[in-house]
Amino acid sequence: MDGRDNRESEPLVRVRNLRKLFDQSQGIVDTILGREPQPVRAVDGVSFDIEQGDVVGIAGESGCGKTTIGKLLVGLHAPTEGEITFDGTDITEMSNETEREFRKRVQMIFQDPFESLNPRMTVYDTVAEPLKINGIEPEYEARRERVRTVLEDVGLAPADVYLDAFPTELSGGERQRVAIARALVVDPDFVVCDEPVSMLDVSIRAGVLNLMQDLKEEYGLTYLFISHDLSLIRYMCERVGVMYLGNMVEQGPTDDVVNDPKHPYTEALFDAVPDVEMREQRRRANATGEVPSPRNPPDGCRYHPRCANIIPDDDWAGSQDAFRRAYQFKLRIEREEIGEETIDPSEADSERELLEAGLTLDVPEEYQNETERQTSGTRVSLDSLDMDRTARSTLEDAASALQSGDRERALSLLDDELQTVCAEETPAPRPVENRDVACHLYDESPAAGTTAGVGTAATDD
Predict the structure, then answer these.
(1) What b/e sequence results for 223-236 when a residue is b if at least 16 CB atoms lie within 10 Å of its CB, and e otherwise?
(2) Region 3-270: CATH code
(3) Coil, helix or strand for 317?
(4) Distance between CA atoms of 13 and 59, rounded to whole angstroms?
């Protein structure tokens, strides 16, 4: 860690308990069925700081809420709850004059240059538009000279060749450079880059990213990069926050988060990235199931239904692997993925077959039980699992109830036996070495090092 985390100055961007919910109104179907509306919880309780001059990233799968955060920070969305301050000013309560100044100092580069540029506007008109809107360089010649300078700064030289061109006459890389010029023409302090090279050919991505690094120094910029491309985050960003289903699960220095992830989701996220050098030796993600709906996220830690490290209750007598499998059996019953129709009831010992099918994990072969590997992941031997007689009996009783069609009794039996803090309490970010990690694995861990937010420590005053 460097000394930035101990600075007493106000961060450039300060986010506290940020929430953004979409579709909060009650639809016709909800009204007819008497159901409460289920809004999309795009961002749900996120806090972090970004210091002046930092290059930070937000990483995560599609739909995790990272783009929504970017739009909240530049004022394109209004938060449902929480606080966003820019250079000490709450951006949700700005006067007209303050907002005009904010629009000059904060800009965004969007993902798709084919969509973000108006095809009916020339390059000059596109880049000059922010100057006109913000009343900068009112004289035409001065404005045109400013546009020419910025175009050459972003690598579109000689600028006169491009000024009167339309987007359809440009390549993808040239269009994105125009988009970058449009963001920089007002000389901003903070730029949010939402997947800035994802729509470009691989051959030109490095050139655009190197350009953005050079522009940071030339224009004195602070960057926030939003991307699912972990290689981009590692190449560009000093610090990173990892998001999952609207929550920030880990924040800290990029190299440390990449090389030694502390949150199970972060570990799975980086394990899932192909590594040509490691080839057959690389680890693969030990996660099961699909990402839940943001309309109905799980209680407690949102990652716990997929987590390889789900924590058993103190009363559980057996291995963590056996608990994870038993808990997955319960989840499958809740989701109605398994039931009396799963196994042919005429088969001998069909209840046992139902239970052993329900205890399997949909994970890469390296994490499978020996029986799973022998049966291509369709069965796991109950006898091979480390659990006490009481737990085994409960699972067998639940399978019997399920086989007879009594799903509610099966769930009742399992609810009593399978308790976990991961499903009961939402983990708060905790200092672990030089980062913040929102995971119950560290509930009892002593703090080591300093707390680290995305930019610096994200702590309430």
Answers:
(1) bbbbbbbbebbbbb
(2) 3.40.50.300
(3) coil
(4) 18
What are the tens digits of pLDDT across the range 155-165?
999 999 999 99
Looking up tokens 């400013």 gives 146
Select from 347, 309, 307 the least CA-distant residue to 331. 307
- Give the domain ranges of the chain: 3-270, 312-419
Say which residues have a Cβ less than 8 Å from residue 174's Cβ, sequence separation at least 6: 156, 162
Instruction: Using alpha carbons, list the distances in angstroms from residue 281 to 66, 226, 451.
Output: 31, 30, 33
Name the nearest CA neighbour of 296 among 83, 17, 71, 23.
23
Q: Which amino acid is at 323?
A: F
Please tell me which residue, 272 or 393, carries the higher pLDDT value. Answer: 393
Q: How far is CA 340 from CA 326, 332, 377, 411, in A?
A: 18, 12, 20, 14
322-355 pLDDT, tens digit per residue, is 999 999 999 999 999 887 666 555 554 678 889 9
DSSP 420: -
Residue type, 252: G
Task: Give the tens place of pLDDT for each residue, 20-72.
Answer: 999 866 556 666 666 677 899 999 999 999 999 999 999 999 889 999 999 99
Rounded CA separation 42/58 (Å): 14
How many CB atoms are located within 10 Å of the residue 349 CB? 10
Q: Select from 287, 209, 184, 223 the least CA-distant residue to 70.
A: 223
pTM of the predicted structure, to 2 decimals: 0.88
